[in-house]
Design brief:
By secondary structure, this protein is mostly beta strands. About 0% of the residues lie in helices and about 55% in strands. The protein has two domains: about 60 residues, no CATH class; about 150 residues, Jelly Rolls (Sandwich), CATH 2.60.120. The protein contains no helices and 18 strands. The radius of gyration is 25 Å and the shape is elongated.
Length: about 240
């Protein structure tokens, strides 16, 4: 993969040129994506009589262009590839959506939340630009309705963590603050229903991490979860 990688390319050419004469050389290459295809083409007037061996040294940056998604596998069609998962995280089919990441404070098969309390999904990328962050989620909890207003205030957070460890909160839900409706067909007592986040922010250059987490508060018995899907981070 060549996202935001500077590739140093050296070519040794044998040219017929006059020592005192300047020769104009244009360098072009095929359009790049995640994989470079084709060859670098050297175009110029080399019709000169004397021999000289010359070295051309240059650098080329393969950028993530504006509008390209800095998040890999944001639709989870490749499972959890490119993501770092901690605790009970899986990818499940979701009607009307396709694939969705599923994080729970309980267990997925034999894999349980960290300390039976917390699960997290994150991905890092390098950038220095104005970013547009988009994703969808649905917050689910069995704490609803019996424990709304209690210390069992399970929560979901989505945040962007910067190079120095500071974070920007992108979305948050909790048992005590969210508006729930019946969780029909979700396996949970309550759900917020699908929510969409679309926010734009200016960031300095560096390594950033987009993090989603869900955590128990006050107990490790009654579970809470979140679906996350259609994740994208683009340069504007």
């Amino acid at each position: 993969m060549l996202d935001s990688t500077v590739a140093m390319l050296k070519f040794l050419f044998t040219f017929f040129i006059i020592l005192a004469q300047e020769t104009s050389v244009n360098i072009s290459s095929p359009q790049t994506g995640e994989t470079v295809r084709g060859q670098v083409e050297i175009i110029g007037d080399m019709d000169v009589p004397n021999f000289l061996s010359a070295e051309l040294d240059f650098s080329y940056t393969f950028p993530n262009g504006n509008g390209s998604n800095l998040i890999k596998n944001g639709n989870f069609v490749q499972g959890l590839e490119h993501w770092i998962a901690s605790g009970a995280v899986s990818v499940v089919p979701l009607p009307g959506v396709g694939k969705s990441a599923f994080l729970t404070t309980g267990c997925v098969g034999s894999v349980c939340a960290i300390g039976n309390v917390r699960s997290e999904l994150k991905q890092s990328f390098a950038v220095g630009s104005t970013l547009q962050v988009k994703f969808n989620y649905n917050f689910l909890s069995n704490e609803f309705p019996a424990f709304v207003g209690s210390v069992f205030n399970d929560a979901f957070e989505a945040k962007l963590i910067g190079p120095n460890g500071g974070s920007t909160l992108l979305a948050t839900e909790s048992v005590n603050s969210s508006t729930f409706k019946p969780g029909n067909g979700t396996g949970f007592n309550g759900q917020t229903g699908p929510e969409s986040i679309d926010t734009t922010m200016k960031v300095s250059s560096g390594q950033y991490t987009l993090s989603f987490s869900v955590a128990d508060k006050g107990d490790t018995i009654v579970d809470t979860a979140v679906h996350v899907n259609n994740v994208s981070v683009t340069k504007k």
